[in-house]
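Consider the tokenized backbone below.
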């Protein structure tokens, strides 16, 4: 059973617990906007580390200027002055790209995480921490619940305490069990102020409207905790199902043994959704309605196939086969010395001095059957046809040197953003797909009762 943190911890207690659970010495990058949550996180960490002698961990900080308000630059400079006062190295990075006409919040969030990764590289940080609070958690869950309160809505578990970004650096949230008002009380007692972003009061944004009507009773907290426990357990059970019944061939063909269809429906559904996202090269799991159709087909136990989320589900007596459908497989040119993602499923690193062309393979029937000897011939042909084929763009007849063109599988739903909820399942699937290991979480996120 996964044990989650106690609710509503004071800032210093939350930070102390966080630091004690780190698995080794860390250089911690604090994302500081200047608001109460992030300033409170920075000051809490600084205070606790200073009291402990500051020998094991060190702090650096970064402020992201989204270039959306005229005051943003001066606010970033104000943060820089506070960091200088505390002797904490600090950098400012600006989102200078052209802003989208819609979906600005989502785009800003993506830019923020990308720039924080850049800051972590610049400052040689091991982990990134943000000031997301218990209030943020309740707001997030309320917004997700407004879209769907169904049990299959994994978003009801809220934000994860630990998230792996781009397969290489962990983002941690020490304040997820801390109230915003407790943070502000701590800052007032410390004689510190903070910056109020006017967008936090703008009812144009959904989060602001939700915040104003939010139920913050203990029942709401218990619901989030219960959903988080359920999501942990669901991923763990799906990983067990995969270990028992799933076979992957060449990273493109999945087969679930017939016995898998007798497993708990919710667990089977979650594993199938994860496989569909990986095989289909999608960053998000299929929509609930899509998975409803898949599960309805399996419930009937009638042999046949259907396409969902760019993936063919083919039910045979030998089991359930899944692979990418053969449509919309576009070619990709990868310039010399660069890296490209083909079809959301493969990372192509071109270390040659020529551009290369990546497209779907066109293999002879005999070759396809030899590559997938345990699959029916029709499935073998379809699976072979969605594998990547690489040619020198200018002289296709010349074979590409495999030592200078590196082809790596991409697990799309996990490569960009892997929450701790899914870590057990992701690690199981990466092993079955022959994918390199994910970096270990730098914090104890799984505690088991004996």
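A designed sequence for it:
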């Amino acid at each position: 059973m996964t044990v989650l943190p106690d609710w509503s911890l004071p800032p210093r207690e939350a930070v102390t617990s966080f630091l004690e659970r780190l698995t080794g010495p860390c250089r911690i990058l604090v994302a500081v906007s200047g608001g109460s949550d992030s300033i409170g996180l920075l000051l809490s960490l600084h205070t606790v580390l200073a009291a402990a002698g500051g020998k094991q961990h060190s702090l650096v900080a970064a402020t992201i200027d989204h270039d959306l308000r005229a005051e943003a630059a001066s606010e970033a400079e104000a943060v820089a002055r506070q960091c200088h006062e505390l002797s904490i190295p600090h950098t400012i990075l600006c989102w200078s790209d052209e802003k989208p006409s819609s979906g600005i919040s989502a785009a800003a969030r993506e830019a923020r995480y990308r720039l924080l990764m850049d800051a972590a590289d610049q400052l040689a940080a091991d982990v990134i921490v943000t000031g997301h609070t218990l209030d943020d958690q309740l707001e997030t869950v309320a917004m997700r619940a407004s879209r769907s309160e169904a049990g299959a809505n994994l978003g009801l578990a809220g934000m994860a305490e630990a998230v792996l970004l781009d397969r290489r650096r962990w983002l941690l949230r020490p304040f997820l069990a801390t109230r915003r008002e407790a943070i502000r009380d701590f800052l007032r007692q410390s004689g510190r102020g903070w910056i109020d972003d006017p967008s936090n009061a703008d009812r144009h944004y959904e989060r602001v409207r939700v915040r104003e009507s939010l139920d913050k009773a203990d029942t709401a907290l218990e619901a989030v905790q219960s959903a988080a426990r359920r999501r942990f357990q669901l991923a763990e059970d799906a990983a067990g199902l995969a270990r028992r019944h799933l076979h992957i061939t060449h990273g493109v063909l999945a087969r679930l043994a017939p016995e898998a269809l007798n497993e708990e429906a919710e667990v089977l559904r979650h594993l199938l959704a994860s496989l569909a996202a990986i095989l289909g090269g999608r960053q998000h799991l299929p929509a609930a309605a899509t998975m409803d159709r898949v599960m309805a087909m399996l419930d009937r136990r009638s042999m046949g196939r259907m396409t969902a989320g760019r993936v063919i589900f083919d039910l045979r007596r030998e089991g359930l086969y899944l692979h990418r459908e053969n449509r919309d497989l576009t070619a990709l040119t990868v310039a010399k010395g660069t890296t490209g993602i083909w079809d959301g499923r493969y990372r192509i690193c071109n270390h040659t001095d020529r551009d290369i062309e990546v497209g779907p393979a066109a293999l002879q029937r005999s070759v396809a059957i030899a590559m997938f000897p345990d699959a029916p011939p029709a499935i073998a042909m379809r699976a072979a046809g969605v594998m990547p084929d690489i040619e020198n763009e200018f002289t296709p007849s010349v074979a590409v040197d495999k030592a200078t063109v590196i082809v790596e599988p991409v697990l799309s739903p996990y490569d960009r953003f892997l929450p701790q909820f899914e870590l057990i399942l992701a690690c199981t699937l990466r092993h079955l797909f022959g994918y390199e290991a994910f970096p270990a979480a730098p914090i104890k996120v799984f505690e088991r009762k004996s």
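The longest strand covers residues 58-65.
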